[in-house]
């Protein structure tokens, strides 16, 4: 091969520069006056492209979120020293964000260039948030000037900026522009917005239809209740809320003495739940669709007009609205994830996953053959064929002269028996019996801990203490056996083993400290119950479950990003709830509302309660009553809760289900591919086993084997392994071989294979890079032409293990 010329090398060096034109150049001018040579613009470009700059902005956003969370909203515009300090701190955050926006505008341009600041959607969001903050400060200063110039009439004058302050809760959204994983999840959700919009129109159409039907059927029917005769006092049983009644028919009669059914009652939930007009009728229908409190509405209607036919209205509403139309959201999201999976499959991601699994199987096969060599070495040791005994007589005579022969022989025999005993211990800890024995001990430990209860007898306490010591001893023996059989390095490579060692050592230390009277029992033995998680490692032999777990692990990154996005959504809604309802859930009935927005932790819990749909309508009713009840502007509060429930419950939480459905589909695809591959192997093996027969006879034999009931004579619960290189097709091997059973270290220590022989390297089609023989001297003294180095150079083209040894020479 001719050496490359300097011109060729120069051309190769220039090749990587081809993609550079794809990067769009910076605009020659920004804001119509600042060129690329302007020192101010140069400084802005260097700062915004400085990597720590983005980190500083993200930390500032996080600090701003903490300041918003610490703020304590108070009713009637009250304030305290903490809130005043936080209001002053808001100016600092606003200045930082304004400087950031100004520097990016100067560096990238404002609007008209292709890569301008406002050409990015996330920058538009940042700019709107900063603009609203600056606009709020300007209005505050205008109000302050007006109050100083006209102090007598300042009350009620000026512009109210309290509503604009609520937009400060959008600042956590700026985290999205700095976290790429959040942008990926949001972009996936935005792609599904168009079909989701179609479903929203369908839901709105159905709500309108049922609202109109309810308006025609139940208008004015829910304002009668039982009053004491001659008074305006509602006649109810103690601790019972009033409900509608009926004077005639099968509705609820007034059964309390001296009471009568009379109109004038606002209605259930302080007059919020009724069908008197189109707006409240839609709100009531939507509440029923969410399946929270719909039975209460049904029973109130039954009390008002009877129970003969209203159930038809509500049952059809739930069937069509909740069970069918709203579940289309899950179908749309799942369909979008399926499309993304198909795109990934077409790009080769799916095939790469299958190839990765195949390479891992082949690697385990080769490692198993290497381990088989160690078994043969142990067999040689049992026969006394020590390689060290093949040494020369001069060495032995030297040992005899030195008087060390007996010591050397003792050391040799000790090492021999140590290797044999260690290998036996290795086989024991990797066996199926040992694995299930440990699982049994862990289950007994769990039962011992679960038997504890309040006011238990002394004999049970003593029995639990003895059981704890015995089980701890057994776990200690298990740990020591694994350390000896596997070696400390291999033992601590497993996360399960690290956890086991920590639990065992903590349990021993706890017993020693308790016996010495230094401390009281901590209950560390409870941690040993976590070892039951080991049983999930049996998925190695359960193909379908193993594929599902693999698919779930591959989607951890998407789930983590979605969790972060959901947490960010909860934070924003909680901060907005504090701005709207902080300090307002204080009513005259002296009943404490547990779901409120008076502080940030309680606001987080309230928002999460609304997302889960548990009694979310009661939180909405309290919010409406906090602003004056079912009249303007209190009725507008329902918009906050409806948006929170729709975006959180129907979209974000359904994305988790969509990911789960997509993982099931991917796991089924992997399982189908494995079944097809196993069928192909079976056909190939059958063809190899019938070399003298014609193709027609082979096809007939294959059909007969296919018609034979699967698993005949074989337990259906076991995954059978059949050697495809054996002539006996019906030979069935142990489905759980002792040396290949999943213990705590199947990923750390190779196993003796009781499985098909690994494929030859030629079939793997691995691309191997040719490594030239170095021309330098080995060990600084052996030249490449040395007669001792030449034989090792010939082995350079052999296996990788020999190549590493040759490289040293």
TrEMBL record:
Protein name, UniProt field: Voltage-dependent L-type calcium channel subunit alpha
Domain Ion transport: residue ranges: 51-344, 432-669
Protein family per UniProt: Belongs to the calcium channel alpha-1 subunit (TC 1.A.1.11) family.
GO cellular component, one term: voltage-gated calcium channel complex
Catalytic activity: Ca(2+)(in) = Ca(2+)(out)
Glycosylated sites: 257
Positions bound to Ca(2+): 292, 614
Pfam families the record matches: Ion_trans
Matches recorded under SUPFAM superfamilies: Voltage-gated potassium channels (SSF81324)
Biased composition (Basic and acidic residues): 690-711
Top-rank taxon: Eukaryota
Subcellular location: Membrane
Function recorded in the entry: Voltage-sensitive calcium channels (VSCC) mediate the entry of calcium ions into excitable cells and are also involved in a variety of calcium-dependent processes, including muscle contraction, hormone or neurotransmitter release, gene expression, cell motility, cell division and cell death.
Compositionally skewed regions (Acidic residues) per UniProt: 742-751
Topology class, membrane: Multi-pass membrane protein
UniProt feature coiled coil, ranges: none
Main location: membrane
GO MF entries: metal ion binding; voltage-gated calcium channel activity
Region of interest called Disordered, as start-end residue ranges on this chain: 1-24, 672-717, 731-752
Keywords: Calcium, Calcium channel, Calcium transport, Disulfide bond, Glycoprotein, Ion channel, Ion transport, Membrane, Metal-binding, Phosphoprotein, Repeat, Transmembrane, Transmembrane helix, Transport, Voltage-gated channel
């Amino acid at each position: 091969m001719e050496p490359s010329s300097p011109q060729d090398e120069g051309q190769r060096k220039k090749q990587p520069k081809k993609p550079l034109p794809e990067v769009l150049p910076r605009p020659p001018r920004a804001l119509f006056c600042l060129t690329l040579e302007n020192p101010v613009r140069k400084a802005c470009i260097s700062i915004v492209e400085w990597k720590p700059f983005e980190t500083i902005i993200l930390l500032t956003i996080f600090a701003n979120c903490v300041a918003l969370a610490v703020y304590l909203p108070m009713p009637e515009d009250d304030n305290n020293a903490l809130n005043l300090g936080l209001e002053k701190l808001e100016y600092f955050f606003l200045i930082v964000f304004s400087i950031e926006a100004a520097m990016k505008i100067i560096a990238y341009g404002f609007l008209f260039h292709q890569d301008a600041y406002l050409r990015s959607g996330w920058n538009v969001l940042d700019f709107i948030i900063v603009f609203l903050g600056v606009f709020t400060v300007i209005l505050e200063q205008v109000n302050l000037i007006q109050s100083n110039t006209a102090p007598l009439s300042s009350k009620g004058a000026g512009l109210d900026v309290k509503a604009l302050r609520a937009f400060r809760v959008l600042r956590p959204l700026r985290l999205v522009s700095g976290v790429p994983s959040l942008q990926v999840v949001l972009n996936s959700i935005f792609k599904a917005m168009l079909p989701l919009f179609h479903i929203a129109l369908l839901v709105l159409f159905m709500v309108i239809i049922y609202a109109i039907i309810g308006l025609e059927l139940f208008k004015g029917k829910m304002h009668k209740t039982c009053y004491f005769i001659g008074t305006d006092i509602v006649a109810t049983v103690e601790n019972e809320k009033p409900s509608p009644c009926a004077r005639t028919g099968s509705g609820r009669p007034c059964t309390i003495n001296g009471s009568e059914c009379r109109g004038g009652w606002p209605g259930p939930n302080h007059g919020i739940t009724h069908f008197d007009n189109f707006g409240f009728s839609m709100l009531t229908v939507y509440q029923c669709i969410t399946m929270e409190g719909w039975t209460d509405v049904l029973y109130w209607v039954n009390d008002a007009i009877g129970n003969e036919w209203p159930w038809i209205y509500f049952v059809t509403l739930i069937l069509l609205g909740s069970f069918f139309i709203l579940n289309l959201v899950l179908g749309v999201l799942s369909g979008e994830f399926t499309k993304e999976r198909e795109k990934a499959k077409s790009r080769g991601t799916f095939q790469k996953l299958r190839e990765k699994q195949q390479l891992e199987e082949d690697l385990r096969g080769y490692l198993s053959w290497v381990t088989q060599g160690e078994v043969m070495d142990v067999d040689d040791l049992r026969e006394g064929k020590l390689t060290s005994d093949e040494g020369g007589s001069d060495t032995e005579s030297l040992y005899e002269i030195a008087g060390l022969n007996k010591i050397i022989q003792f050391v040799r025999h000790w090492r021999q028996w140590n290797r044999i005993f260690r290998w036996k211990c290795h086989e024991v800890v990797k066996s199926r019996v040992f694995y299930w024995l440990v699982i049994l001990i862990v289950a007994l430990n769990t039962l011992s801990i679960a038997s504890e209860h309040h006011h238990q007898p002394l004999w049970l306490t003593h029995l639990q203490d003895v059981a704890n010591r015995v089980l701890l001893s057994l776990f200690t023996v298990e740990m020591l056996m694994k350390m000896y059989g596997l070696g400390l390095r291999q033992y601590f490579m497993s996360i399960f083993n690290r956890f086991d060692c920590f639990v065992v050592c903590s349990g021993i230390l706890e017993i020693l400290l308790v016996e010495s009277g230094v401390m009281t029992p901590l209950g560390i033995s409870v941690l040993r119950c976590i070892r039951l998680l080991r049983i999930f490692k049996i998925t190695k032999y359960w193909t379908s479950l193993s594929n599902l777990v693999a698919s779930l692990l591959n989607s951890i990154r998407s789930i983590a990003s979605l969790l972060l996005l959901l947490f960010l959504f909860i934070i924003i809604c909680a901060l907005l709830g504090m701005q709207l309802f902080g300090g307002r859930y204080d009513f005259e009935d002296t009943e404490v509302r547990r779901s409120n927005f008076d502080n940030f932790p309680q606001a987080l819990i309230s928002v999460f309660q609304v997302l889960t749909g548990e009694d979310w309508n009661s939180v909405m009713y309290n919010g409406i009553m906090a602003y004056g009840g079912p009249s303007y502007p209190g009725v507008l509060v329902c918009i906050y809760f409806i948006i929170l429930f729709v975006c959180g419950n129907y979209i974000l939480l359904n994305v988790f289900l969509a990911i789960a459905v997509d993982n099931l589909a991917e796991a089924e695809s992997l399982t189908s591919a494995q079944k097809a591959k196993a069928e192909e192997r079976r056909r190939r093996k059958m063809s190899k086993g019938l070399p003298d027969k014609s193709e027609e006879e082979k096809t007939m034999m294959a059909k007969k084997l296919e018609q034979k009931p699967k698993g005949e004579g074989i337990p259906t619960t076991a995954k059978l392994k059949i050697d495809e290189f054996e002539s006996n097709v019906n030979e069935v091997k142990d489905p759980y071989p002792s040396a290949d059973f999943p213990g705590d270290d199947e990923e750390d220590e190779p196993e003796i294979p009781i499985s098909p022989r690994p494929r030859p390297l030629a079939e793997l089609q691995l691309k191997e890079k040719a490594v030239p023989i170095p021309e330098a001297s080995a060990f600084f003294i052996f030249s490449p032409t040395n007669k001792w180095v030449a034989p090792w150079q010939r082995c350079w083209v052999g296996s990788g293990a020999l190549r590493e040894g040759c490289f040293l020479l």
